[in-house]
Write a structure and sequence with these properties.
single chain; alpha+beta; about 45% strand; 10 strands; 4-stranded antiparallel β-sheet; elongated
Length: about 240
């Protein structure tokens, strides 16, 4: 019996942190132009799990029928864990022939058919993501294509990032004005360069680690363990001050 332990190790903390920087500042006659950047780090609140169901058969209908059966079983396993049906989406499905090639004749012969379905499962239960993967594998899913984490509503954090960007732009402009021995004037113009850009730090070995867990679940070994990291929400602005 194989026993595999798998984990995605990414740092996680409860507090929200903010980081900022300002750059690309220059002074024209009567004005100072600066760019300000603000970054806020926050914990995710949503997990998207990608599940794969693959089946084979001598006929296309047979391969598809078995795939439909397993897909229904996996879907039921998810709803039994209180995942809403609206949060289980078919992201991809296909049926295609498999071939055997004859090197001597250069011809290929159909040997059967392969059916494949990818399900996308969304849950707010991000601290127990592994149990959904385990339940899917036990219901017949072939494997997983990874888990992505996100923030359903990042507007609050983006507002904080904008505030940090404004402060950093003002610090940069003030430093330039002081270097010229002049006071910083009023804001003449401000524009938003980019918005709602965020990303999560992930482990590059996530997918391979998940695939190893399939054997563990099948053999009654250790369950899937998934840790998540912080998400960064970034705001960039351009400000023109009087000088």
């Amino acid at each position: 019996m194989k026993k595999w332990a798998r984990g995605l190790v990414v740092c996680a903390a409860a507090a929200v942190l903010s980081i900022g920087a300002a750059c690309m500042a220059y002074a024209a006659e009567g004005e100072i132009n600066v760019n300000g950047t603000g970054v806020v780090q926050a914990d995710p609140d949503t997990a998207d799990i990608s599940l794969e169901i693959s089946t084979d058969g001598k006929a296309a209908q047979a391969a598809q029928k078995e795939n439909n059966r397993i897909t229904a079983a996996v879907t039921k396993a998810m709803t039994d864990l209180n995942v809403k049906k609206d949060d289980i989406v078919t992201a991809y499905t296909s049926v295609y022939p498999t071939y055997r090639y004859n090197d001597e004749t250069g011809k290929r012969t159909i040997t059967g058919y392969h059916a494949e379905t990818h399900l996308q499962v969304k849950t707010k239960d991000i601290n127990n993501t592994g149990k959904y993967i385990d339940a899917a594998l036990q219901a017949g899913a072939t494997g997983t294509n990874g888990v992505s984490f996100s923030i359903a509503d990042q507007s609050k954090y983006y507002g904080q990032a904008l505030q940090a960007a404004v402060k950093n732009a003002e610090k940069s402009a003030t430093a330039i004005a002081q270097a010229y021995g002049k006071p910083l004037g009023a804001v003449k113009n401000v524009s938003e360069i980019s918005r709602n850009y965020y990303y999560m730090n992930t482990d590059s070995n996530a997918k391979s680690s998940m695939m190893a867990t399939e054997d563990a679940v099948a053999d009654g070994g250790l369950g899937t363990t998934i840790s998540y990291g912080k998400i960064e929400i970034t705001a960039n602005i351009s400000v023109t001050y009087g000088f």
